[in-house]
Amino acid sequence: MIQRIQSLWLLFAAIFIGLLFHDGFKFSALKDQSDHVMTKASETAFADGIFTLSDHLILMVAGGVSVALILIIIFLYTNRSLQLRISKVALFILLILNGLAFYLMYRELNLVNEIVDVDLAVKPGAFLPFLSILFIYLAIKNINKDQKIVKSMDRLR
Known about the structure:
3 strands; three-stranded antiparallel β-sheet
């Protein structure tokens, strides 16, 4: 049924990844955003002083695919084995999204640091993928628990 706890965990994961598409949730920002620094950083993803999901096409695609996949998983409650497999795929995509986002962020920061020395301020949006990974893990754990309950009931018959 759709009101199971794993459906809530999956919904929370989809919401947190979806929040990354909002401009208010940034991965990071340059600490010094003076005119001198901003003109030097204009060729990088830090051209506006912040690093978001929309700075790279691959991050936007991976984020959109993961949100869509998670929402699809919620409605696969009748087929727990398929729900479990697709949840593991979504978890893998989120791990790749998270690693790729931090790699691209620090690569762009190094490009800016070659021109001018500047520090990075990590924003709350950097932690949203970690929370989504945690919620998908909790959903997988509960799906496994449901699967075990159903198997044990079948043995009793």
